[in-house]
Amino acid sequence: MNDAFRNRRGSLHCESVSLDLLARRHGTPLWVYSGGAIRGAVAEVREAFAAHRPLICYSMKANSSLAILRLMVAEGCGIEVVSGGELFRALRAGAHPDRIVFSGVGKTDDEIRAGLRAGILMFNVESEPELDAIARVARGLGRRARVEFRINPHVDAHTHRYITTGTHENKFGIDWTMAEAVYVRAARLRCLEVAGIHIHIGSQITDPLPFAAALGRVEILLDRLERRGIVLRWRNIGGGLGIAYRPGQHRLNARHVASLLHHRLAARPMGLIVEPGRFLVGEAGALVTRVIHVKRGVRKNFAIVDAGMSDLIRPCLYEAHHEIVPVQPRSGAPRRVDIVGPICESSDFLGLGRRLPPLRGGDLLAVLGAGAYGMAMSSNYNGRRRAAEVLVEGGRAMLVRRRETYLDLVRNDR
Length: 414
Ligand code: LLP
What we know:
The structure is a single chain. With 414 residues, this protein is α/β, with parallel strands linked by helices. It has 12 helices and 21 strands. Helices cover 29% and strands 25% of the residues. The strands form 3 sheets. Strands 4, 14, 15, 16, 17, 18, 19, 20 and 21 form a 9-stranded mixed sheet that branches. The longest helix is centred in the middle third of the chain and has 19 residues, at 209-227. The chain is elongated and about 70 Å long. The structure holds ligand LLP.
């Protein structure tokens, strides 16, 4: 696992800041992010692909906190957005429009218009009907839309079936066997600039080989397109780089992936875009939660905590594993315990059957690897207020989003 969260003198810290202190100051549940870990991860990707001078378009669906977006912009990153709302947030955070790529299978005319008006770098086009919609909206505005096609390469990324995207079964992208004809048609449309090719085969990929397989198909397609006189400027290899969720597990080695792709990437001098989300923020974040009650049952013991599936839905949705550690471990023999939330659903758990030191009401736990798809997927289910977020940078902790209030919960009701 990462070193953003470490035990110091018997108490868990984020960089040099005590989680106990942050929990007392801001309450729980609380998201805590390490700015240093995020910057380190950006550098890892940049250095791995340095030979190709990559444009790193941070996939903001992983964590769309404005503070994190600003940090990415300061690091020179672009942003990958998938909705009008994400585009709005990215621009609000100061992202350069000419470093924004817009993906998603169901962009509406309004969203396409917003992208064109903002002057984004390009759209990732996921289907022929969408191509027609972009062409129509661009014509209406008297602009040219820059596009790249997302290709579905039929490569199994060997990840959870809910987050694999590059096989026949998935709704994403244009089947790679059908793509040539689509490019040829698009190249004839004056309101479009056909600029690139895009793949994204899934998320939390821990094996570098599927990336190479997918890129192989891209190269076959590029050969065919060049024979027809269609020369592209950009190659976008998507995101999906996996991180470590369990002790002893390693995050995917970005350098290893880059070296596996190197000769193919070097063979054609095209711009390279990478779109990692989880890899940049996942290990940099923890969800800090307080034990409300410890409940003994006939067959099981439960620690009922103040965070639940409305905060972190990944365990419930994907049976995802997140390490859970006490912030200030008590001495005593470890026991098996289910860490469950207060929500009225049996699937509301953060971890099942964990061996943890003795717990008491009031103790703090940290759920690790929670920086990606944590807060971003949280909800108000069961009348719960979305938690506050703290970013630790250079030894300073800043509250970057306040906890929602009860008034926030009724604000939009009429
Ligand atoms: N690019 C595109 C087009 C994507 O659809 C995604 C993620 C990414 C990049 C970034 O993928 P990453 O580098 O983060 O793997 N909620 C799920 C993950 C869903 C990913 C959706 N697309 C989870 O919690 O595991």
